[in-house]
Amino acid sequence: MSETEGKAIFPEITDAHEREATDMLAPKFGTDGLVTCVVTDADDGTVLMLAHMNADALARTLTTGQAHFYSRSRQALWRKGETSGNTIEVAEIRIDCDQDAVWLSGRVAGDGNACHTSARSCFYRKVVGGDAGTRLVRDPD
User: For the stretch 2-14, what's the b/e string if a residue is b when 16 or more beta carbons lie within 10 angstroms of its beta carbon?
Assistant: First the structure.
């Protein structure tokens, strides 16, 4: 599926009030053609990762039930887990009020780690302030 085909399945609604009131999925992609996507664990609600989707990635996620994203660094579409085996099976997709952010709830296959660092979540470090300054502390997970 080309990016053009993906965009064709989503109506373009330019009026903010109409976009908030509609029952149609009409994502408001940024000028870069992307929308932010937060991914949480369907069973316990843990925030697993944050990624971006273009129209193609969102369309493929909807049609396959597997999470697809767009890599800004590689400028390429990718299916989560295509190399690691840690795919994400989608349980639910939500979109925020003005349709410029996606919330994907899913289950990670493979070893259950969503992060490319082999951590369960990409948010495995806490920001801690103190006398020694701000630092990052890894969660024991």
Answer: eeeebbeebeebe
Q: Which amino acid belongs to residue 64?
A: T
The residue ranges of every structural domain in the chain are: 3-138
Q: Output the tens digit of pLDDT for each of the chain's 141 residues.
A: 444 444 568 988 988 899 899 999 999 999 999 999 999 999 999 999 999 999 999 999 999 999 999 999 999 999 999 999 999 999 999 999 999 999 999 999 999 999 999 999 999 999 999 787 899 999 876
In 3-state terms the chain splits into helix, strand, coil percentages (rounded to 5) of 15, 35, 50
Q: Tell me the sheet residues that pair with 60.
A: none
Does the model's pTM come out above 0.85? yes
The candidate with the shortest Cα–Cα distance to 62, out of 51, 53, 73, is: 53
Cα 17 from Cα 141, distance rounded (Å): 43
Structure tokens of 108?
């990670």
Question: CATH for 3-138, among 3.30.565.10, 2.60.40.1180, 3.10.20.810, 3.40.50.300?
Answer: 3.10.20.810
